[in-house]
Amino acid sequence: MEKIDSDTPSMEVSQRLRELREEHHLSLRELSRLSGISVNALSQMERGLTSPSVSTLFKLVEALGVPITTIFRSEPIREEIVFRSAAQRTQVPFPLGMWEGLGGEVFIGHVEPLMLNLEIGADSGNQPIVHTGHEFVLCLEGNLEYRVEGKQFTLSPGDSLLFAARLRHHWRNAGESLVKAVVVLSGFEEYESPAGFHIS
Q1: Which superfamily does 10-72 belong to?
Q2: What CATH code is assigned to 86-199?
Q3: For the chain, what are the domain ranges?
Q4: Of 76, 136, 64, 86, which Cα lies nearest the Cα of 106?
């Protein structure tokens, strides 16, 4: 197998793979079926005996439904009180838009507020978004269209939307100007990072 980046020790990756599998309540056999990687190979990776190739890592994260960065990202220190100035926001760009973290990424509770910035024509992609918990949207600028289980809602400044996030949803900039909205994800499972579903 190809060696992973030398800056990331094999043992650290092996521990992260085991943690992710257990967080998703999967046995080695179940993960093997989902990823197409043998149980023996998975066991050796988790024990740090072998290092997965890049292609193998992509098969694993696809089977687990997490972004590749999850394998190498250490868990941040969670806090009970989080202050973020506008200049300190975590920014995650994606095609024609940007998510800005509002502190939820390091908050101890299961709530993640974000600022959604969309250029004209931006959308969430072809696949519907589904995750646990709830989703609250408050439009600040522009016209933001949400489709939830086939129902269409067009939010203008001041309009809001609240729904169970297990319902299939999709968003897009439906107007001719930039969109800015606050999105609050809450009540999700501990192993989930629902913001990732919106930017993958």
Answers
A1: lambda repressor-like DNA-binding domains (1.10.260.40)
A2: 2.60.120.10
A3: 10-72, 86-199
A4: 76
CA angle 177, 164, 85 (to 5 degrees): 55
Residue 88, Cα to own-chain centre: how many angstroms? 20
- Evaluate if pTM is beyond 0.85: no
Strand stretches in 125-188, DSSP E: 134-141, 144-148, 151-155, 160-164, 169-173, 179-186
Encoded tokens for 55? 């292609």
In the numeric block, which tokens belong to residue 158?
């001041």
Contact 119, 97 (CB under 8 A): yes
pLDDT above 70 (res 188) = yes
Q: How high is the pLDDT of residue 3? A: 31
b/e per residue 71-91 (b: at least 16 CB within 10 A): beeeeeeeeeebebeeeebee
